[in-house]
Design a protein that fits this description.
Layout: H1 2-24, E1 27-40, H2 49-54, E2 56-67, E3 70-71, E4 76-77, H3 82-86, E5 87-101, H4 114-121, E6 122-137, H5 142-146, E7 152-165, E8 168-171, E9 205-221, E10 224-235, E11 255-267
Antiparallel strand pairs: 1-2, 1-11, 2-5, 3-4, 5-6, 6-7, 6-8, 7-9, 9-10, 10-11
Length: 268
């Protein structure tokens, strides 16, 4: 229900921006993005590449830009100011999903302890639905890029997203004292014994996140661009993955890296 409401808010806001900004003389761009997500969370071992590469998922999204450099109502450029020629406002609605497992030395196949067995049996899933905005800065002139003065236009961005998260948790561990208790996520005896009670909680929730990225656009045609964008997103919550253990290694909230590829179309 919350995700549906966020979708409606985004659609209504998009139409509102389009109508309002058309009157103000701005133009608009729409696009789609997709790419691999590397989710960094409490699963696995910190600063361990097998964890980072092992917990990889997928993200998709729909994006909208306000282009301050060009006026669609008169097919002409806006007032030539530094802001108009170097900034765009990006709105986005996106979703990402990552299957999570433990990697690293504590689940090494050579370890035969009960604790290692419980870690290997523990699985999770991060499901996140985002809506938000970013301000993108283009060091090169947006006007010149649209006029084919150069093919590539690098950019950096910073913004805030509102996130609805729905994690999942499961275990394949069999409780020896209660063999019918397979996969019970409410029984702490099925999970890593050194975590504090209550460390696993796959409840849905919402939070804010900070988003920053670096990327580049490639001018494909007069009305279309290709985009490559590497995003870092830090959540203001540590329950995005459904796991929040209290070990000393748990120093940061959940975050992700998303390398997305996009296609952007200019609304004429």
């Amino acid at each position: 229900m919350l995700k549906t409401k966020l979708l409606y808010i985004f659609i209504f806001s998009l139409f509102g921006f389009t109508n309002t900004n058309a009157q103000l003389g701005f133009s608009h761009e729409v696009g789609v993005i997709v790419g691999p997500v590397e989710f960094r969370s409490d699963f696995g071992q910190r600063v361990n590449e097998s964890t980072n590469l092992g917990n990889t998922g997928i993200g998709i999204g729909i994006i909208h830009y306000i282009n301050f450099a060009y006026r669609a109502d008169c097919n002409c450029y806006t007032t030539n100011t530094y802001f108009n020629d170097h900034f765009k406002l990006r709105s986005e609605i996106s979703w990402n999903k990552t299957t999570l497992d433990h990697h690293g030395q504590w689940v090494d196949p050579g370890l035969t302890s009960d604790a290692a067995d419980k870690l290997r049996a523990h699985h999770g899933e991060a499901n996140n639905f985002d809506i938000g905005m970013q301000l993108e800065y283009f060091p090169l002139s947006i006007r010149s890029f649209q006029a084919f003065a150069y093919k590539f236009a690098p950019f950096i961005s910073l913004g805030v997203h509102y996130t609805s998260f729905t994690p999942k948790a499961s275990t394949d561990y069999v409780n020896a004292s209660e063999t019918n208790d397979i996969g019970n996520i409410l029984d702490p005896n099925n999970f890593y014994p050194y975590w504090e009670p209550g460390s696993i909680n796959p409840s849905a929730g919402t939070t804010w996140s900070m988003v920053t990225s670096v990327g580049v656009r490639y001018k494909l045609s007069v009305l279309s661009d290709l985009m490559l964008d590497l995003r870092w997103q830090l959540y203001f919550d540590d329950w995005i993955d459904g796991l929040n253990h209290q070990l000393e290694s748990n120093k940061f909230n959940d975050w992700l890296l998303w390398l997305n590829f996009g296609y952007i179309y200019y609304l004429d």
